[in-house]
Structure formats: structure tokens, C-alpha cells
What does this fold into?
Amino acid sequence: MQETEAVSETETETETVSVAVCVATLHRPLGLRALLGSLADMELPPHVRLTVVVVDNDAEASASPVVEELRGRVRGDLTYVVEPRRGIPFARNAAVAATGDVDWVAFVDDDEVVARDWLAELLRVAREHAADVVTGTVLPRFVEPPPEWARAGGFFERPRFATGTAIHYARTSNALVAAHLLRSQERPFSEALAKNGGDDTHFFQRVRLAGHRIVWADEAVVEEDVPASRVRPQWLVRREYRRGNTLSLCLRDLEDSPRRRVKRVAASAVHLLVGAGTVVSAVRGGRVALVRGTQRMAFALGLLTGLSGHVYEEYTVVHGR
It folds into this structure.
């Protein structure tokens, strides 16, 4: 009996698995070139059939030369689509529509590069932990040496967990999604959040609320470019405001109730008070404390404005090249 089970497990691991890697891009030729190069250099298990889908969110098809330059290097099929409607969810939905009949859909951004075993690790964790969604590590890669306050504050470090940990969120900057979750809706990413950038938060919250399992893969690593235009207190504060705004917009749409609204307002008040205290402590804590406290206050304000239905449009400027 044990021998039969071992054979079955081996056969499962070697069955052909089809994966489409989706990339939305806009005016980042250098970043897209680096990303496609890293996808071409990936080490794939022999049973993985790969498709790469690049959706250009520029009606002028400005990414076409880079795609054609790298077409011969990328393993598997490379599909190029132009989505003229400006907005991240439009591009993501167009990418999903172009994936065809695959088992899994992976997402990565056009300002990132993937590790050689990135996709293999995502698939391994999905298989071993029976996950519907797997998300992994995003490490910052500064385009220019950052100032000391930015490095000391860890403002660009994201939380990490032990591989296999069940978590309640994911991001399309590094994610693997069972394709049937995306095919269940004609437009899986909310186009009402076209310039907010929170459509992936909205999607993964829906996935979680439907009872699907999201798991962390710590060894599935991508590196994200951090241009100098983002290494500024103003951008960091706006990012936290947008995060709070997005979370409350998602609450309104997916889990709205008077009780939840009261809890959200109370949470916002706590963040405001703690943030204000941190700002006051900046007299001794310096710039790190000042930025961190201001971020927390901005997050609180974002929570409140999101409850009112206000949509903060962050993605009107392209950072990086």
C-alpha cells in the first residue's frame, strides 16, 4: 500500500502543468527588458509548460520593440497584447483573457526581476500545501543608493513568513493563482479601481472570503526596482494613505455592515493617535520617527476617506523606466 502511494505522488509531480505568467507594462522599456530576461533564465521543471503574456497599457504599443527583442529567448509561448484603456485592472483583465486554458496564472510586475527558481518554488508550495493562491517575497533593489533614513527605517521592506504559512492577502507583484479562480468571472479585477491600484487587494479579498487558501512561499523571490522618485517621505506617506483608502473601499464593496464601519472608524482613531505620538517623539527619534508617524496618520485618514467612497488615484504617474 505504501509503495502504491509513493508511485502516485511521483506521478502527480511529473504530470504536465501549464502556467501563464502575466505582465502588465506601461512606459518601462528597461524594466520590461530586465524582467523578460529573468523569465528567460528561469530553471523550469521539465513537466511545466510555460506561456508569458505581456499586456501593453499604451495605445501606441511602445513595448512592442522590447517584446520582439526578447521573443526568441523566452521559453514557451510569448503573447503580446495592447490594452488601450489606461488602468492596471484593464491590463490585468486583458492578460487573464489571453492566457488560454492553463492550470495556473502567475503575476509579476514590469519593474521586477525573478529568481531562477521563482516559478518552480511557487508551484512546489502550491502542491505541497494544497494552496489556491501562493504569494512570495519581494525584495527592494534601489536604483540609486538610498539615504540613511530610508534604509534605517526599513520603509521598503515587506513582511515575510515561514513557507507554508496561511495568510489573508496577496499581491500581484509576486503571485500564483489557480486559473479557475480567475475564469470564474469575466473581469476578475475590479475596473472601478482603475487608477487606485487596489484591484489586486480587492480580488484576493474576494478569494479569501470565498474560502480559498492563500499560502506564503518565502523562497519564491523577486526583486523590485525602487527608483529615486519613490525614496521620498512624500511618496511613502501617499502610499500609506492609498493603502488605507483601498482597504476601506474593499470593505464597502465586500463586507459592509454598520458594525464593521464602526470598527473601522475606531481603528482609524487609534492609528491617528499612535501616529501623532510617533511624530511628537521625532524630536528624539529623528526623521525615521517623523516619516513613520506621518505614514500612520495618513493610513488612518485613508481608512476614513475610503469609507466615504472616495477613490484615491495614485497611478497617474509612472515611476521607473
